[in-house]
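Dear all,

This email documents one entry for the complex benchmark we are building for the journal club exercise. For each entry we list the sequence lines for every component of the assembly. Then comes the predicted three-dimensional structure of the complex as a token string, followed by one or two observations. Please use this as the template for your own entries, and keep the labels exactly as they appear.
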Amino acid sequence: MYYYNRTPGQSMTRPYSQWVPPMFFTIDPNNGVAIYDQIVRQVKYAIAEGTLRPGQLLPSVRALSQELTINPNTIQRAYLQLQADGAIEPLRGRGLAVRAEATRLCVEARRDLIAQRLRSVLSEALHAGFSNAEVKRIVGEQLTELQGNVPSISAPSPLDATGS
Amino acid sequence: MPQAIKDSVISVSGLSVHFPGCDALRGIDLEVPSGTVFALLGENGAGKTTLIRCLTGFLKPSAGSCRVLGLDPAHDALEIRRRVGYVSDAPALYDWMRVGEIGWFAASFYADGFTDRYREAIARYEVPEGRKIRHLSKGQRAKVALALALAHDPELLILDEPTSGLDPLVRREFLESMLDRVATGRTVLLSSHQIAEVERVADEVAILHQGRFGVIDSLSTLRESVREVTISLEDPLVELPVVESPAEILSEQTEGRQRRMVVRGISEEILDGWRSRPGVTRVSMRAASLEEIFAACVRGGNRDRSSDPTQRSHSTKSA
């Protein structure tokens, strides 16, 4: 059964399964992105930046459901999506593990997600009536301002470097 | 005992309940699939508790039928109570009993193993076993009620606003035990006003409004299909093209030169239709949160009667 020897602010410890959460999830049910998609994205980001490495096991559906107080069916859906996308694979009797080629896939997925988000900002700018040149100027200005001021959290992967 | 059949745990058709001077439920249909968390939302007095009371056999419906675990609450109320766990918002517990005694008392109604599971739960919730119910806090009473409701390992757990007035940690324990039920394939019917919690845990959501369901759908479909659209207009009186089904406007508000609508099932064509309309300066859209969907259902339904039809180009549907 479950044990709840927990102090406020500390995550739960469960003697029956000795895993330490391999990563932290931040779920915001209100932010428009479906919860399962938030999990998918965060797992992909974690794989892309090397927090989750190939071969590493993901928490079980039930454990993660309790940890995040999210419906297990939602977690199941996220895991199915991650499997369909080729990021994780089931290891019989052990759980779900990050696949060997996941890092490459997830770096690509991260670029796609960033592109999508930029796209929504850019389309907002275009809707507001800015011209192409103006938008480019704003983007250029922001980039020069940020250059060298933003610490990169994860070591840039070789794929990222060649891609940009 | 895990359920092998993957079909409806609760099925309700045409259920109506009339009280003197009040129609609490006006012909509702409902299917709750097994292995899900089904959330029932609605303002105070919308009919949530009435529905639950019908399902548990405490109240005879005026018309229509309902089946719970394949049984009819009107005839097999006892069997249903044996197989369902129920926590109401104000649990009725004998307050002269001690925490341990009430478990022992309740155990006589259920199969073996009840007491062990009850005591294990009480210990986990850190409720002192020797204390009288009278001397427990509200949260501790709720924990006792939950422990009693879960100790016979019910196939269906019904929670009627269980977390109102409880502190965040106790609420979390309630949520965890709910999710634990679902992880083992059981079903939970949850009525709640804590929309943020519902958004985290629910599979299916039904919004009751004036005795009918305004919305009844899976939460992920709702999230994907309901959008809040804000349209900036040159002139507040500009008419917009009527939205055709399957799209549906849940609510509509006009504020100066802006019109804000909560729309279900919106498509690019509709948006383009609005954008290309003369007099429309900007159309923006974002996903609606469950709270906004809820407000739209409740407000949209009320507006149906009160507002002046010439002000609007669409009729608001409250299905």
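Observations: Chain A touches chain B at residues 1-4, 8, 27, 29-30, 32-36, 61-62, 65-66, 68-74, 77, 124, 127-128 (CB under 8 Å). Residues 6 and 12 of chain A are 5 Å apart (CA to CA).
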